[in-house]
Amino acid sequence: MTNMNMTIKETEQEIIDEFSLFDNWMGKYEHIIEMGKSLPMIEEKFKTEDRLIKGCQSKVWMHSELKEGKIYFKADSDAIITKGLVAMVIRVLNEHAPDEVLDAKMDFVEKIGLKEHLSPTRANGLVNMIKQMKLDALAYKAKV
Amino acid sequence: MINEKINTRSSSSPSDNRRLRPKVKGGAFDVVQIRKDFPILSRKVNGKPLIYFDSGATAQKPKQVIDAITKYYSEQNANIHRGVHRLSQDITTLYENARVTVQKQIGAKHAHEIIFTSGTTESINLVATTFGKLPSPGGEGLGVRSGDEIIVSEMEHHSNILPWQQLCEEKNAVLKVIPINKKGELVLDEFKKLLSEKTKLVALTHVSNTLGTINPIKEVIQTVRAHSPLLGGGDRRGVPVLVDGAQAIPHMRVDMQDLDADFYCFSGHKVYGPTGVGILYGKEEWLRKLPNYQVGGGTIKTVSFSKTEYADIPLRFEAGTPHIEGGIGLAAALDYVNNIGLENIATYEHELLQYATEKLSAIIGLKIIGTAKEKASVISFVLDGIHSYDVGVILDQLGIAVRTGHHCTQPIIEYFKCTGTIRASLSFYNTKEEIDELVKGILKAKEMLK
User: Fold this and answer.
1) Do residue B397 and residue A29 have CB atoms under 8 angstroms apart?
2) What is the interface pTM, i.e. ipTM, of the complex?
């Protein structure tokens, strides 16, 4: 699930189309859980305190690298639904230039009916992860 | 100032009395009728009927409480303790009647031993802050000195840890912790060992919000009293015990004369009343010893730039315009639970707890956290290999509201070596059918998350 030739907008649309196939919540959540299983897993050595994004309840570890002007994200979470949501966000933002990551609105989450997961009270670390991805992008932008 | 003889029911109109109809018919507990009093229980969540198992976080409100608040704003609003005009006098009477209702609820000797606060957290902070200001001349007296000790337990809510931890840091004192056992009960033998002449205060929860454990508070207080003559340096007046009663008040009758607690704290919103209002009960002798907390309007007799004379208790601790509708709403809530009967509530909730314990225990891979002999209707559990957060998300999709995570009791979560628990806190408006739905929901979550 890499997005070699797709723009962020195109990947978002692809996800919106996938989710439109489900007419109930169970299908949606099963799809999220499946996506979690395909997540580029972060190596154990990167599961360090400084890569830990704290939610109140579930933990997310995230690591990024810049290669040839594009950012590569890897992550993991101790909760499987969070992991699926994290995988979905990475699928959208992975392998894009810092500027593209910074400009991404991420409003597709709302369009697939999962807006509540971006609410700060969800405490799942997803909001903080997106924030961290953008901060990383900002740091890389200064380098390139 | 405060007339303790005012009739507490003078706030009720005839229509209020009609609504306070008995809910216990022929000894049976009429949960169908009771549920009709709670408007929110008829709403849907994610397209499913709401099943609310998060009363330990905050309880839902009966219409009697909602009506009392609406009536206050539509017919009675004025500031208290100030005006000579009719509205102000009427609302002052109602507010002070609310204080008397609380006094009677917990068996306090005097209405002036009841302080209105914003909640349990503020009540504890008030005591920690003012107790910390007490002097200790020449190393004697009640004040906390370097090397002194304050005792809490491992099962406390963060709100009954942090104020004491902060006080200890400020005074270079030591926070001692009563350990718990695998069942989630206090290890009382260890507690006895912790008591020493350095002990300055004991702060303990009555009922654990995470484990449901009902602590033997009376026994604990007697133990402290028995050690008292040896405690407190040269001071023979004893070591005060503060009880966090936030999770006890909704479930059982508590009596200050029987318990002999020096301070007892609880919140309005957990006992079916409004948020933002809570109670600090303090024995008169202790409240008089404590110095001022926040000061300002309402706390004074006379003010001048050279000398201010402060009001007597309880007003000395109630700076600013209080949460008037909170106090009135809390009294309406207490009237409501008393009308059903706390004994009836306790019996029914115990039945629900036993039913839920039996049904949940039958789920393979489910482990109940907190199996104390004496429990209130709170069940925490974990599912083998599944994160509590994931279960919470799936149950939410089914319209079932539970709490997941550490429940502001991280030391408990650490003790039981889990990432968090799923907590169902049951109230008298819940039913066995709802527990069956919870069981189905957990099985569904297990299937999806395996």
Assistant:
1) yes
2) 0.89
